[in-house]
Design a protein that fits this description.
Structural class: mainly beta
Number of domains: 3
Distance between the termini: 21 Å
Helix content: under 10%
Radius of gyration: 30 Å
Number of helices: 6
Length: 632
């Protein structure tokens, strides 16, 4: 359900007030997929490939599993996982214009979200995993309040006949209050559906409060409405900063020159306009609300053979903690061609992020948490973005437009701040390479006896891990086009996009070859040698390298197709409507890829930097939408 309301009030020519509110409610049952032993895809992909397989899911239980690995649909669909969300977003904006050159604006807003996550297995109805057959109920209730307040004043004035100026000063206040309470009950009585019915109870809670107060000033000038210069600085103070760090400053500067408006610029219908631009700016990412705090954790200790409440040092905190800071320089140009029917925008950028927030490992002798957040390291991103907008056909009865866009980003770790490389099983952070890049031990193979079967002895695995490729896709491009027919009453539009240069772990096939022993590379003697080699490397070789399962995710996807029909106005007036349209659309229609997994965009283990693994993950669904829009 989605409800919206807007109210606009005018108080003469000098003041007005706009109030808006929106409410969204969603109730959904979540499918159990990905890394879930009791989920559908885990048991479907993990099955032996034939129907009548005998398994023992628990001691004393032997049965025909009908082709599933451990658990059958009647069991894993008996688990009910739900997420119910109610969210309200409201704001009020007041504008006051005391004079022709001065304007003031103030906005107050609140974003409230209430979420309930529940997971229930009734007694004797779910799988044999752990103690699930005894029944359990988990209920987590989360509320998140975000309060915002913005106020600014703008003065617009002239400095002579050719120079325009604008001065802006303002402040911003943001407060976020996150609260979560969790309850868990296990060993339910028959028929029970509440946490309190469990014989074994547990509970937890979490609170995080973050407050940001910022001030900013901005000054801009324009010369003959063709040369524009702007400079600004913002200062933030955040409650998550360490006690020894109080305030951060972010400067900004921008220059734009519409050179085509100059008298000396050659006039032609081919090159109708040209704007040159450049900018410099700084921004930051705040630490987590509790990252800088030293705090204790409650624990139960045994004193004189009795449980006694106690405290342990859970986090050292960091009084020097400050925001992760990014500085970016960008230059570009905007070109209008053929009297504005074709427009090209190109931007190049170089962004450096320093004082990165990294969890640094702490020596065990400290006797607290294994890590604490510190500002170390530097990451560099540089790339180019471009967009080409074209009006290919523009007549009264027919129209055709298209937009081509592309983006390329080169990401590298410039410095780890003197800390050793963060080496993982499959991904690592190493200076000079992308964040969380894929690093694995490579191998080569050769069918030396010519029997078309790869053995361990025919596999040679490297001694050390080597760089395979980035986990974050470096190149993206898309083509959007729309065609209007029959006096523009029908519009057909489509979107095709591509992503190139990224790599992903095909975790589904890896676990099928390694643990389930049911993949083609393991059980089919006619499988290609490369499939056999990677299965042998991960299952039978002592290195257990997953190098063969980290694959390129290059793809071309037919993302969307839609058709919109504008109903004749005479028909719309029969319903007291001024406009009526019908739209039918389809999304995720098809994909072309060399990726051997389920889908190159199927991702699990998603993180804030985009590292994913296709691990028993459902692909992006193909869905169809039919919509009726009526304007009164």
């Amino acid at each position: 359900m989605n409800l919206r309301g807007n109210l606009n009030l005018n108080f003469g020519d000098r003041a007005d007030l706009a109030v808006s509110t929106g409410f969204v409610s969603s109730n959904q049952r979540l499918p159990q997929t990905d890394n879930n032993t009791t989920g559908l895809l885990s048991n479907g992909f993990g099955g032996p490939g034939f129907k009548n397989n005998i398994v023992s899911p628990a001691a004393g239980v032997t049965r025909n599993n009908l082709g599933y690995r451990l658990y059958t649909p009647d069991e894993f669909f008996s688990e009910t996982v739900r997420q119910d969300i109610n969210r309200t977003i409201s704001s009020a904006t007041a504008n006051y214009r005391p004079t022709s050159w001065l304007a003031a604006k103030a906005t107050l807003g609140i974003d409230f979200a209430s979420r309930v996550d529940s997971d229930i297995c009734r007694r004797d109805e779910c799988t044999y995993f752990g103690t699930s057959k005894l029944g359990y109920k988990e209920n987590n209730r989360t509320t998140n309040f975000v309060y915002t307040g913005d106020a600014n004043a703008t003065a617009t004035y002239q400095l002579g006949n050719t120079i325009g100026a604008k001065s802006i000063a303002g402040l911003q206040y943001i407060k976020e209050n996150f609260n979560r309470n969790g309850a868990y009950g296990e060993d339910l009585t028959p028929g029970a559906t509440t946490v309190s019915a469990g014989a074994i109870l547990d509970a937890d809670e979490a609170t995080s409060i973050s407050i940001t107060l910022g001030y900013f000033v901005e000054q801009s000038f324009s010369y003959k409405e063709r040369l524009y210069l702007a400079g600004a600085v913002r200062s933030d103070r955040n409650s998550a900063f360490g006690t020894n760090f109080t305030r951060v400053y972010y400067p900004k500067a921008a220059l734009s020159y519409v050179i085509s408006d100059e008298p000396f610029f050659p006039r032609s219908s081919f090159l109708s306009s040209l704007r040159l631009r450049g900018a410099f700016g700084a921004s930051g990412r705040q630490p987590g609300g509790n990252d800088a705090i030293r705090f204790l954790l409650s624990a139960v200790s045994n004193v004189d053979m009795a449980d006694t409440p106690g405290l342990v040092l859970a986090a050292l905190g960091n009084p020097e903690l400050k925001p992760e800071r990014s500085q970016e320089i960008e230059v570009g140009f905007d070109v209008g061609l053929f009297d504005g029917s074709v427009n090209l925008e190109v931007t190049g950028y170089n962004k450096r992020s320093r004082d990165a927030l990294i969890a640094r490992t702490i020596a065990p002798s400290v006797g607290s948490a294994v890590s604490r957040f510190e500002n170390i390291g530097e990451v560099r991103n540089k790339g180019i973005e471009a967009a080409l907008n074209m009006q290919l056909l523009n007549q009264k009865s027919i129209g055709w437009d298209a937009t081509v866009s592309l983006a390329y980003n080169d990401n590298k770790i410039s410095s780890l701040g003197g800390t050793p490389p963060n080496r993982g099983t499959t991904t690592s952070d190493i200076e000079g390479y992308p964040i969380q890049a894929w690093w694995l031990r490579p191998y080569t193979y050769e069918d030396t006896n010519g029997d078309r079967l790869i053995a361990v002895s025919e596999l040679t695995v490297g001694d050390t891990a080597v760089y395979v490729g980035p986990s974050i896709v470096p190149f993206e491009a898309s083509l959007f086009t729309g065609l209007e027919l029959f006096n523009r009453t029908i519009r057909i539009q489509g979107l095709v996009d591509t992503k190139l240069g990224g790599y992903q772990l095909n975790g589904t096939e890896r676990i099928r070859c390694d643990n389930r022993v049911n993949c083609r590379g393991t059980i089919d003697p006619t499988a290609p040698l490369w499939e056999q080699a990677r299965a042998i490397a991960v299952r039978a070789h002592p290195s257990r390298t997953q190098w063969g399962y980290v694959e390129k995710t290059n793809f071309l996807r037919f993302r969307e197709l839609s058709a919109t029909y504008t109903v004749p106005s005479s028909f719309a007036r029969l319903f007291a409507a001024s406009r009526m349209t019908l739209t039918a659309s389809a999304r995720n229609i098809g994909v072309i890829t060399g990726y051997s997994g389920i889908d190159p965009e199927g991702g699990y283990f998603g993180t804030n930097i985009g590292v994913v693994s296709d691990f028993q993950t459902q692909p992006p669904p193909t869905y169809f939408t039919f919509k009726l829009n009526v304007t009164f």
